[in-house]
Amino acid sequence: MVREAPNPTTQNQFYPFGERPMPQSKNGKPVNPAVVPLHDVAKLPDGAKFVVVGAGMHGMSTAYHLAKYLTESGKGKGSDVVLIDKAGPGAGATGLACGCVRNLYMTKPLHAILRESVKVWKSDPVNFGFQQVGYVSVGEANQESDYIALHKSQNDQGYPSDLYVGKDARNFLKSIWPDFNTEKADLVLHEKPSGYAGTHMAVWGLDQKCMQYGVRRCYGPEVIGYEMQNGRVTAVKTDQGDVKCDVVVIGAGAWTPKHWEWLGKGAKLDLKYKDGRIAKDHDMWTYWRLLEGEVYMPEGVDFRTAQDRDSPVLHVELMNTPVVAEDGREFPDKHFYMYARYAAERVGAPGIQGGTIPVKIGGKADVEPYGHLNDKYQADDWFADYYCATLSYLFGRFKGSRKLFKERRNGGIGAFTPDNVPVFDWVAPNAWMIADSNHGFKMIGVGELSARHLTGGALPDELKPFSIKRYTDGWTYGGGNSNCPWV
Ligand SMILES: Cc1cc2nc3c(=O)[nH]c(=O)nc-3n(C[C@H](O)[C@H](O)[C@H](O)COP(=O)(O)OP(=O)(O)OC[C@H]3O[C@@H](n4cnc5c(N)ncnc54)[C@H](O)[C@@H]3O)c2cc1C
Predict the structure, then answer these.
(1) How far apart are the C-alpha atoms of 284 and 415, rounded to whole Å?
(2) Atom nearest to 411 CA in ligand 1
(3) Reported CATH class of domain 14-23+31-94+201-280+419-473
(4) Domains of the chain: which residue ranges?
(5) Does residue 442 line the site of ligand 1, with CB under 6 A?
(6) Is the pTM of this model over 0.85?
């Protein structure tokens, strides 16, 4: 096992390890590449019934399910679907996500989205790299009413979870991890259907399925705008020519604000809340940057449970507890918020991957170059010390783990909606947008639900709560007892 991590801080994550050359540049900036090799790429056609923009989680899941349902129903064929990405599968957030699949949301409608998503993850766990190890979240007493509400809603929605309070919470934690520090653990929610997926594997699996169902996968052309007539999108304009379309699906991740602008939409809006409050002139999109990292397992240590099973994903938010490193150093302006999952497939050796609360950037950000290639948006210097401090506080086995932090680039940015809750909706009469507010790698089922609707079905109940009308109709989501925007 590698004991001392290399320090390729000037490189993108894939390059030092894959010994690949730096990616191509466009307009003087390197383009974040696909995370899987490109093969059997189609020529850009003049037109198609469905044009899907973006080969991330949502674009690929939608394209695959569209092709599947068109074929199975006899309403069409896979080649009616054209999938366009300027780089290829996983070149956005999907390729670098941590891959956690959880349902820990105060926004209750998300519970049904995750139920449907786990159905898709489980439809082919091997080719999606899905590990259904469960998800254990730990909180302090101040979150008790939230945990109770969340637990009830999850179970009502057919997403089984167990809630443990007080001594039961501590006993549960000790039963799976005897070395866990339960001092501040007043609450535990154990989501059984949750887990994680290896991001590259999921990308590969989705790309394969798109190919097998006959989707015309056009990797290379960059969308540069939309041709519109009477409010409808008549063609998707690319730097390699226009593609006429009946319907366009936009799954553009962090690039969504640009596509929004091309569709003629405004950068600001007034948000109306249920209590009558109005937030005037709010940014439609706000960028945040994520803080993540990886830690090798100490020699002779594993991340298995006392039952010798793969550990569930761990999530800890202690709103009244400071983070203190093993040498006594405090992080006074930081909250105790961490998540961790076993990630050998990502670390390249036995290890874990995790992160903390993202940092707000604002209404504007340099999306290019994306991901690990962008010097401005990597995890801050304090992150490694902070993250390892949370690990060593929580687990006896991770004492002294700071030296095992993998010093390499980590992070990425996302475009969040005004209430940090996804928008899945028609944004023009024939333009369907999937804007997941940067927490939707787990939401593989949104593409399936969307495809059901786009092939003629009624709007699924699961998608209705994510209408964009909520901002103007007075049911903008809000609140949530957490220091994190994802609630
Ligand atoms: C560091 C990090 C960690 C994360 N961890 C998790 C996690 O553990 N669990 C979780 O559920 N979520 C996580 N997320 C969030 C999750 O990764 C994203 O919400 C999700 O992957 C977004 O998928 P997408 O399909 O919308 O966009 P993306 O994956 O960003 O895909 C968009 C694609 O559109 C293409 N594109 C954009 N504009 C154009 C154009 N003009 N022309 C052609 N192509 C274009 C891009 O090349 C890109 O490939 C994380 C995000 C980050 C950044």
Answers:
(1) 9
(2) 1
(3) alpha beta
(4) 14-23+31-94+201-280+419-473, 131-195+287-416
(5) yes
(6) yes
Q: What is the mean pLDDT of each run of 10 residues along the chain (487 residues)?
A: 38 48 82 92 98 98 98 98 98 96 96 98 98 98 96 98 98 98 98 97 98 98 98 98 98 98 97 94 97 93 96 97 96 95 91 96 95 89 96 97 89 94 98 97 98 98 98 89 76
Q: Pick from 27, 6, 14, 100: which is nearest to 290 by CA?
A: 100
The tens digit of pLDDT for each residue in 377-432 reads 989 999 999 999 999 999 999 999 999 998 888 889 999 999 999 999 999 999 99
- The pLDDT value recorded for residue 20 is 60
In contact, 378 and 410? CB cutoff 8 Å = yes
CA 424 to ligand 1 centroid distance, Å: 15
Give the single-character DSSP code of 480. -
Nearest CA, atom 34, ligand 1:
54
pLDDT score recorded for residue 480? 64
Residue 93 Cα to ligand 1 midpoint, Å, equals 3
pLDDT of residue 143: 96
Distance CA(207)–CA(89), nearest Å, equals: 7
- The residue whose CA has the least distance to atom 26 of ligand 1 is 253
- What the block records as the tokens of 379 is 């995890």
Q: How many CB atoms lie within 10 A of CB 63?
A: 32
Three-state helix/strand/coil letters over 68-98: HHHHHHCCCCHHHEEEEECCCCCCCHHHCCC
Q: Find the largest Cα–Cα distance for the chain.
A: 66
Fold of 131-195+287-416: D-Amino Acid Oxidase; Chain A, domain 2 (3.30.9)
Strand, coil or helix: what is 442?
coil
**Best substitution site from 35, 373, 439 to test ligand 1's pocket, by max atoms within 8 Å of Cβ?**
439
- Ligand 1 atom having least distance to the Cα of 440: 19
Tokens 């990292």: give the residue.
Answer: 293
Cα gap 70→246, rounded to integer Å: 15
C-alpha distances in Å from residue 296, one per residue of 32, 178, 303, 325, 372 = 26, 20, 11, 18, 20
Per DSSP, helices labelled H in 143-185 are 144-156, 167-176
- Position 23 scores a pLDDT of 81
Nearest ligand 1 atom, CA 92: 30
Residue whose CB lies within 8 A of the most ligand 1 atoms, among 62, 98, 360, 378, for a mutation test: 98
DSSP run (H or E) holding 271 = strand 268-272
